[in-house]
Design goal:
alpha+beta, Jelly Rolls, Arc Repressor Mutant, subunit A, 2 domains, four-stranded antiparallel beta sheet, 8 helices, 11 strands
């Protein structure tokens, strides 16, 4: 596990913990490590989970099945992403399936061990509980932002809102997103062809430049106006 300590220390769940502190927690938790091939399921919709997962290697996507049998990408997971934390402490069944987009390795910690400190009462447990509450809160607000995005009526408004949000998070007008065109189309709940056409129009209007999954916003004021229409 030592090779993953720098990654774990950068996650929302283990932020602020030193390598010795992480080592003490790992001794307490005795986490399970699993490898997944591309297309395999890390978490299946309709089932309860009693474990909190952390993606250590590879990439995965949380998807939700729609009534017509299709699927909508909810979020992408990269190394350091925490999953199952909102569900593990209750009896609610998972509303999403998490699929490996590439070969993956993930760590699973029994939720009971997260919520109930060991008899030694290591100080790291207190920090971990604070981090867990913060992580769940951040996911709630991220979901709220996603809902705000999806209820916008036009694809142009959705794109403007998404790009402005990414620029604000990056602190720069030039940034990259961890989504392909197909992934972004799923995220915005639109057809890939419609997304590509809209981006082409926005480039022609001088609003932005694109290169693969990188964007440069050229006229943020105009993007803001079109988002607020």
């Amino acid at each position: 596990m030592e090779e993953y300590y720098p990654l774990l220390a950068a996650t929302s769940l283990f932020a602020g913990l030193s390598p010795p502190g992480l080592a003490r927690l790992m001794d307490c938790f005795a986490p399970n490590l699993h490898r997944f091939e591309k297309g395999e399921v890390l978490l299946l919709a309709g089932f309860e989970t009693r474990e909190v997962g952390v993606l250590l290697e590879g990439a995965a996507t949380a998807v939700k099945t729609t009534p017509d049998g299709g699927s909508v990408a909810i979020t992408d997971l990269v190394p350091g992403s925490v999953f199952g934390d909102v569900l593990a402490g209750c009896a609610v069944k998972s509303p999403v399936t998490i699929l490996a987009r590439t070969a993956c390795r993930a760590m699973f910690i029994p939720c009971q061990k997260l919520l109930c400190p060991c008899a030694a009462l290591h100080p790291e447990h207190t920090l971990l509980m604070q981090n867990l509450v913060r992580t769940i809160s951040e996911k709630y607000f991220a979901l709220s932002r996603r809902v705000d995005l999806l209820i916008l009526k036009s694809l142009r408004a959705k794109l403007c809102a998404f790009l402005l949000g990414q620029a604000a998070a990056a602190g720069a007008d030039t940034f990259s997103v961890p989504l392909s065109r197909a992934g972004l189309a799923e995220y915005l709940n639109c057809e890939r062809s419609a997304l590509c056409r809209e981006l082409s129009r926005m480039r022609a209007e001088g609003l932005l430049e694109t290169y693969k999954n990188s964007f440069k916003l050229l006229d943020k004021a105009a993007l803001q106006r079109q988002y607020e229409r």
